[in-house]
Structure formats: C-alpha cells, structure tokens
Amino acid sequence: MAIIQLKTRKGAVKMRTPLDRLALVIVIIGALNWLLIGLFDYDLVASIFGVATFVSRTIYTIVGLAGLYSISLLFRESAPTRE
Questions:
Q1: Distance CA 36, CA 39 (A)
Q2: Residues 1-12: pLDDT tens digits?
Q3: What is the pLDDT of residues 42-69, one digit of tens each?
Q4: Residues facing residue 67 across a β-bridge
Q5: If residue 74 lies in a helix (H) or strand (E), which one and from where to where?
Q6: pLDDT in tens, 11-38
Q7: Contact 83, 12 (CB under 8 A)
Q8: Against a cut of 0.90, is the pTM above it?
Q9: Which distant-in-sequence residues (6+ apart) come within 8 Å of 37 by Cβ?
Q10: DSSP secondary structure letters along 11-64
C-alpha cells in the first residue's frame, strides 16, 4: 500500500494512505449529494437507484462509514521532518 506524504507549514509530515484518500472522495461525493438535497430538494442517489432500495441504502451506509473513518484523520499525529 503506497503512503503519500504531505508536508505542513510547520515541517511535519502527514501520511495519507490510499484508503484515506478513498474515504475522503466518498465523503465529498456524499456531501455533494446533501448539497443537492438542501438546495434543490433533489436526492441524486435516490433518483438513480430508487428510494429506500437495497442499493441506495448500501450507498448511504458506505458514505456513512467513510465519514466515520474520516474522523480518524483529524486525530492522526504528524511526524516531524528532519532536513
């Protein structure tokens, strides 16, 4: 599994794995769906997969799990870098 290093302004390195990036992408897609619901009362997931179908509930569950996983990104320690 490839780990991506992001440098912060203070010289610390934050590690991002592909799972971290996937979770963030899923959360962003879910947030865009909520934006559509809030602004236009249009649920894209329900319109594509049906209201309360197994597939739409599975998608909502995946987005929720990705959101829970993304909480861990807030509390990860940054490793200081040496130059």
A1: 5
A2: 566 666 666 666
A3: 999 999 999 999 999 999 999 999 999 9
A4: none
A5: helix 54-74
A6: 666 678 999 999 999 999 999 999 999 9
A7: no
A8: no
A9: 43
A10: SEEEEE-HHHHHHHHHHHHHHHHHHHHHHH---HHHHHH-TT-HHHHHHHHHHH
Structural domain containing residue 60: 4-80
Q: How many CA atoms lie within 13 A of 57 on its CB side?
A: 3
How far, CA to CA in Å, does 56 sit from each of 31, 33, 45, 83? 15, 12, 6, 49
Q: In this structure, how many other beta carbons lie within 10 angstroms of the beta carbon of residue 26?
A: 19
Alpha-carbon distance of 33 to 13, in angstroms, equals 32
Task: Report how many domains make up the chain.
Answer: 1
Residue 33 CA neighbour count, 13 Å, CB half: 17
